[in-house]
Amino acid sequence: MPGCGALCLGLLLHVLLGCGSAQQPGSCPALCECLEAAKTVKCVNRNLTAVPPDLPSYVRNLFITGNRLARLPAGAFPAQRLPDLRALNLSGNHLRAVEAGALAALPALRQLDLSGNPLVSLSPQVFGEGGSPLEELALRGALRDHSVLLSLAAMLQSGALRNLSRLELADNGLLLLPAGMFTALPALRQLDLSNNSLVGLRNVSFQGLGQLQSLNLSNNSLGVLRNGTLAQFRGLPALRHIGLGRNTWVCDCAIEDLVAWLKESDQVEGKEALTCAYPDKMLGKALLKINGSDLNCSMPVDLPSQLQTSYVFLGIVLALIGAIFLLVLYLNRKGIKKWMHNIRDACRDHMEGYHYRYEINADPRLTNLSSNSDV
Q1: Average pLDDT over every residue of 307-326
Q2: Which residue has the higher pLDDT, 316 or 18?
Q3: Using CA atoms, how far apart are residues 136 and 194, in angstroms rounded to an integer?
Q4: pLDDT tens-digit map of 106-141
Q5: Which stretches are transmembrane (predicted)?
Q6: Cα–Cα distance between 32 and 46 in angstroms, integer?
């Protein structure tokens, strides 16, 4: 029986060792903190230069922030190793490039934060060819390079993120947005464009965003919102929260439509605090308190079309004057002809007189004769 006991002990040790080796893929990386009960792994401020390859498969919330990753290559997250990962935070990692397929092996990914990275390259195929079920994307301060903005627009327009419900593009210094950037986001509910330098929304289409509930445009450089943009806002049935604070509103005739919309709309948060930034005489005046008498609208707002109308009218007047002049000439053609003949005869007599005096002055004999006769 002692031999049987030793055999049993050996089998038990073999099973325990086998279990230990099976648990190895779920072990915590050396520079990370793992909370298995919360399904969370944190690799924060560890100077990592690459994604740890030995992340536990149970992780649902992964924080890799404040490191020095520089680039996120294709296959940065091994296929089938993180089947339950839902929230991925990669903010503040000095990332400059996110390559095609870098996030393609994350089938459960719903939240992605790339904020605070100085991106210069963002592949439109970062989620692979089939797109992603991603619902929330944060790119605060990560779109300083214009080419990255264009790549993001191409990604969104391709339909790769049709399930996106929240998009954060704040703190990027954006002046203008690519046309049609948001047209393929039917599930979008929250759009944050605050703290940029947007000067207008003329080329921005909000059509198709039937689920949009919140639009933050505060702290930009908007001077006016045109009728086309206001009409789009009216046509979004779910839109209830629009932030327009801290913009440089120009209170001239062009702002009349915006003021009228503000007075009738309940979509704008804190609209009572919106004030004029220009001109100086309107500085600080509340937009809701502006009346037509406050604006100098002696000149029409649509100046190009007014100038075009003026040119047409001037052309008609000149043509009419020309026709009248020709008619007067025709009716007085005989008198004009006689007048022209008289002028011709007078000029001819005058020229003959000059010619006669020239001949006298040119002939010495006639000159002496003229002198003697004078004596």
Answers
A1: 85
A2: 316
A3: 17
A4: 999 999 999 999 999 999 999 988 889 999 999 999
A5: 311-331
A6: 8
Q: Which residues contact 127 (CB under 8 A, 6 or more apart)?
A: 103, 104, 134, 155, 160, 161
Q: Are 294 and 285 in contact (CB under 8 A)?
A: yes
> Which contacts of 53-59 are long-range, i.e. CB under 8 A and separated by 24 or more positions?
53/78, 54/25, 54/27, 54/29, 55/29, 55/81, 55/82, 56/25, 56/26, 56/27, 56/28, 57/25, 57/26, 57/81, 57/82, 57/83, 57/84, 58/26, 58/84, 59/34, 59/84, 59/85
Q: Cα separations (Å) of 33 from 6, 65, 70, 141, 194?
A: 39, 12, 22, 27, 34
Domain boundaries, the chain: 28-301, 304-361
Closest CA to 169 of 100, 230, 119, 98: 119
Judged by average pLDDT, the poorest of 99-108, 249-258, 262-271, 322-331 is 322-331
Q: Token match 């049609």: residue? A: 180
Would the pLDDT of 247 be above 50? yes
Q: Tokens 């007067």: give the residue.
A: 328
Over the chain, what HEC string results?
CHHHHHHHHHHHHHHHHHHHHHHHHHCCCCCCEEECCCCEEEEECCCCCCCCCCCCCCCCEEEEECCCCCEECCCCCCCCCCCCCCEEECCCCCCCEECCCCCCCCCCCCEEECCCCCCCEECCCCCCCCCCCCCEEECCCCCCCHHHHHHHHHHHHCCCCCCCCEEECCCCCCCCCCCCCCCCCCCCCEEECCCCCCCCCCCCCCCCCCCCCEEECCCCCCCCCCHHHHHHHHCCCCCCEEECCCCCEECCHHHHHHHHHHHHCCCEECHHHCEEEECHHHCCCEHHHCCHHHCCCCCCCCHHHHHHHHHHHHHHHHHHHHHHHHHHHHHCHHHHHHHHHHHHHHHHHHHHHHHHHHHHHHCHHHHHHHHHHHC
> Which position has the token pair 């991603």?
134
Higher pLDDT residue, 52 or 362?
Answer: 52
Residue 354's identity, in one-letter code, is: Y
Rounded Cα distance, 175 and 200, in Å: 8
Statement: 28-301 belongs to CATH 3.30.420.10: no
